[in-house]
Amino acid sequence: MKFAKVFQQVLTEEEIPEDWKDRAIQYKKLKKRINKVVEELENIGISKDEVKFNYNLEMIKSEIHPHLQIKISPFQKNLIVDKLNELNYQYEINPLKIEEIDNDSISIKSAINPFDDSKPFYELKISLLEDTKFFQILYDEIEDLNKFKTEKEAEISNKVELIANEVSHVTIPKMKRTDLYVWREIFQYYIENEIFFSTIERKAGIVDINQSKKRFIKFLKNIEDSKIIEKFHQKDSIIAFNKFKKLNFQILKISNYQNFNMIAVTKILKKFDKQTQLTSSKTIFPKLILINNEINILNGSIAKDICFIISTKLLTIVPQIDDYLCPICCSIAYKPIRLKCGHLFCIRCLVKLRRRNEDKCPLCRNECLLSLTSEDLDIAQMNYMKMYFPKEVREKEIENSREILEEQHVIDPNAKACVIM
Ligand SMILES: [Zn+2]
Ligand SMILES: [Zn+2]
């Protein structure tokens, strides 16, 4: 199926809002514009089979100025210049310097022309009208899509903040019937599925839109299979979750829309090159808009920016256990000791290290174990863990006392009995 049709179908079937449709790349219109460029070249009498092209685009105050530089023989000069005068075109013509005349630029037709042999070549610089229009339309559409991206990002950012606010109200740690653990599990599924942005893949970065869709569906299936929603205590949690779900669908829709617009830009430039033979536009045009536009549609992804907003503003509301693990025992680093080097471990693991006469931090090999005192206990961190991970802290405390009992038992078999008594 032709791309124009596919593009149209996506805009219709994916229930793209009308105002988005209006802002999409006008692929069909641009395609017709290409025909006009071809016509213009024909009218002037310039064809790639006969002359050597050098094509360039310049940007002056958000206006695109294409230049066509062609090397021509005196014979061609007469024909083309006459035509340009007749059509009222602006042009510049200069004789080429001897060193600029390379044999490659002598086309077959001019080489066999008897007028050519003894005379130098000329360089003709013209600004065409139709290609200026084509690129200006394309540029303006891309600019508008960048604006669209900024608008949508702001809109989504606001929605994320609202949801974050709602989630923070239902996950207050000491609150009766808090949904802290339920939301933690939901966010854990969300993080694990890496819906919009990948960190573990070899090609870490933006996830392809179709992948994102699949991953989001997998996330929803995780939620359904785990029956986690039934565990919510607060009605507001259900409302917030539905908003979160809707928000993700919206991000997917925007990403898909942006993706198809990007494809449309690439395809239309390819078509332009193929039909006009002004082959440099494919690389020159993207470069041109890159200079003027750091986050341009050909490069930037809305998913990446939104993913960042979700990670920093929403997911951080409910801390994940992974960020509070002791690197030695891989369970919660309770009671936490912060070494001079900055690394954090649980007190049990450090006590064990000291018993083995270790004096270095296991992570950075800094010699900071010897100087440890009870003052190195990170009280603020300890209270934070107690508040946000009460279950894990309780488990760790039970485990610690069990370990202490076992040790005492090894040292003194009667000790256990004593303690129990
Ligand atoms: Zn530990
Ligand atoms: Zn260290």
TrEMBL record:
GO terms for molecular function: zinc ion binding. The keyword Lipid metabolism does not apply. Residues 1-286 form the SPX domain. The keyword RNA-binding does not apply. Residues 326-365 form the RING-type domain. Keywords: Metal-binding, Zinc, Zinc-finger. This is RING-14 protein. It comes from Pichia californica. The lineage of its organism: Eukaryota, Fungi, Dikarya, Ascomycota, Saccharomycotina.
